[in-house]
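Bug report (template v2)

What were you trying to do?
Predict the complex of my protein with 2-acetamido-2-deoxy-beta-D-glucopyranose.

What happened?
Run completed; filing so the output is reviewed.

Input:
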Amino acid sequence: MAVTTFSFLAFFTTLLLSSPVISTVHFNYPAIFNFGDSNSDTGCVIAAGIGGLLDPPYGQTYFHEPSGRFSDGRLIIDFLSHAMDKRFLNAYLESVGVPNFRRGANFAAAGSTILPPTQYAFCPFSFGNQVAQFFSFKARVLQLLGGKLDKFVPREDYFRKGLYTFDIGQNDLAGAFYSKTEDQVIASIPTILQEFENGTKKLYDQGARNFWIHNTGPLGCLPQNLFVFGKEKSDKHGCLRPHNHAARVFNLQLLALCRKLQHEFADARITYVDIFSIKFDLISNFSRYGFEHPTTACCGYGGPPLNYDSRISCGQTKVLNGTTVTAKGCDDFTKYVSWDGIHYTEAANHHVWSQIPTGKYSYPLFSEKI
Ligand SMILES: *[C@@H]1O[C@H](CO)[C@@H](O)[C@H](O)[C@H]1NC(C)=O
Ligand SMILES: *[C@@H]1O[C@H](CO)[C@@H](O)[C@H](O)[C@H]1NC(C)=O
Ligand SMILES: *[C@@H]1O[C@H](CO)[C@@H](O)[C@H](O)[C@H]1NC(C)=O
């Protein structure tokens, strides 16, 4: 472990002193086990067949076809896993082809919540289910080890040495706004985080030691929420104040939980990553980062300012009011922060990723991790 800490620190020190060539970031972990929602789903929901298929132009930027990801290209988790070992993380449910789980597995599912799914939920794989899937995965791997599938599954020690990454909670909050007031949404946050705490404790009890926890982004800036909840409650950045306030309260409580967990799990390393601030800075100061459209969907229908219409999603063709219309992609994907009104473009995901190694957005700071 000491070696890992040293490399991690040395690496980031080097990075801060030299130019930030992100592709050389070396997270010194042998595997990644990821839990989350569509922000980090690399094919679960599509493999499970619960969301139908994604149509082009999903995937167009990097994979040149829909890749099971809710973006035109790569997600933050892709940049992270690529920086680690130049490979993408396979979805746990992926069964076609030769999924390789040697360097970890991805349990994230689009639409998932931390709390158990309600009867109306689109995705059945909430955080507790994802943790249960991880335990099935681990038990099966431990049975298989020593046989001919060794090169496709993690080594036993990878479960302790691996990085456990989390990006979940956005759907708990965004979904709650459809039936609750802002105060009620905020009052529900401790229950949501209790469920999250229970899952992380189960993982710790089974040997997880390296936790990498993303907080939730500025939900109030997503074209989908602006479309549904109107712009009258928006702030000077054009984002919904109640949604962003709930996200901030959630994040403060999540940070407190991370500190508590760090205290309880003395031999673990808990890193909280402030994705909210990176995304909100990107949306507020978009032109500085080379973007032109902070809250307009690149792929959608309806035109500016949102180019989002909840009746038709990116890539679909439908008859609306007797006219056949298609939700098409924009001309230059790299100028938009929002891909489809809910998810970010590869360009935006890359920007978020590029800010992580600066260490400014992680707690404790990388330099404090001795
Ligand atoms: C979390 O775990 C505690 C103690 O094991 C249990 O009492 C509680 O019901 C659990 N909460 C949730 C939300 O699952
Ligand atoms: C936008 O940039 C300014 C100048 O660097 C900074 O002070 C401000 O905090 C940024 N906005 C956000 C929301 O981060
Ligand atoms: C459909 O018609 C309604 C009522 O005339 C109008 O408000 C709406 O904008 C139209 N939608 C489209 C997609 O043209």
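What did the reviewer find?
The domain at 2-296 is CATH 3.40.50 (Rossmann fold). The two ends are 10 Å apart (CA to CA).
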